[in-house]
Amino acid sequence: MKSRQSVWLALPTLPALALAVCLISSAACACAASAASIPATAELAPEALYELSMAPTSDYEARVRMWNPSTAEVWVDAARANGITVYSIRVSGHIASVALSNGMRVFYRTPLTATSSASAADMTLSPAVGPRMQALASLAEPLHYDSTLLSENYTFVAGRGTSVAGRETIELRVVPKWPGNVRRTVWADLHAGTALRVEDRNYRGDLIWLWEVERISFEPPPQQIVQAARAAISSNEAAPCSEPSMSLGEISKAAGFGVALPAWVPEGYRLVSLRPAQMARSAPVAQLIYSDGLGTITFYQRRVPWWARRASPPRVGHAIEWERNGIRYVLVGDVDPLLLLKMARSL
């Protein structure tokens, strides 16, 4: 009898209990939905998000505006699928492209009216002179990402970004620890992590490089683009994105003289590559590349014929050129010119 009475006494509380259960369930569902709606990029550390933005994993097709002082404004079509990235521009009745995959690159061309992939034999293309082709060639030689070197010399700050190409972004500021060096700002897609806008500014805050997506679709690009890129990257024309670095002895032998190293470089910079550059007046040129993980300083050296020798000291500038003992030196970089001059005088 007591048991039956307890049941009847409990009946008025059942609706309240049911309501509580519903509220708890709704709250749990809301929390689950909220957790599901949080972008994966929000859980990444700024350094990891930066790495993803520079080497995205999502397939996409985009129209991109590039700018720097030497090539001015260039529009590039960009696409990525199956681990292959393709950059293309329209040139003289055809599409000039470079495909990048697994550290390899290849230049090729396809007709403007192509509806299917061309054969590898029809797609070889040597980068020609001209600002637009120079811009395309620059995309084929990315500086190797060195997370250790970058972390040693830069700090990463993430915050809410402005909309780019109609997409929500996270703003990443890559700030140099040492004065006079390059700084970078990246607007990465909130959901995919892909870089939608990249600005590099020099020590004065002047814009020196810009990458800005005008439109982007995170869908696989047309099949003919993928087929042409795969055929090109599989051809014998494919080559490493960057040549292996030589030793000081090897580059000196190739240049025909003792290549010299400066005794001082700006704080954070390290020698990352020694290799031959393009021929200049039939004289071999040694190219030394210094990097702090983001900024680059390039040092060229070549022998001058005896009849053209004219000794001159280094003078301050964004490009410093001088001559000593029959060797011509050119030092170029986006750091403070006073740092370049100090580097030149330490030779």
What does this protein look like?
The protein is an alpha+beta fold. The protein has two domains: 46-240, outer membrane lipoprotein receptor (LolB), chain A, CATH 2.50.20; 248-345, MucB/RseB, C-terminal domain (Phosphorylase Kinase, domain 1). It contains eight helices and 16 strands. It is globular. The model is unreliable at 1-36 and 115-127 (pLDDT under 50).
Radius of gyration: 28 Å
By oligomeric state, this entry counts as single chain
CATH architecture of the largest domain: Clam
| Largest sheet, strands/sense/barrel | 11 strands, antiparallel
Q: How many distinct helices?
A: 8
| Total separate domains | 2
Task: Please report the distance between the alpha carbons of the first and last residues.
Answer: 104 Å
Return the CATH class of the largest domain: Mainly Beta
- Compute the average pLDDT: 82
Shape: globular
Helix share, percent = 10-25%
CATH T-level fold name of the largest domain = outer membrane lipoprotein receptor (LolB), chain A
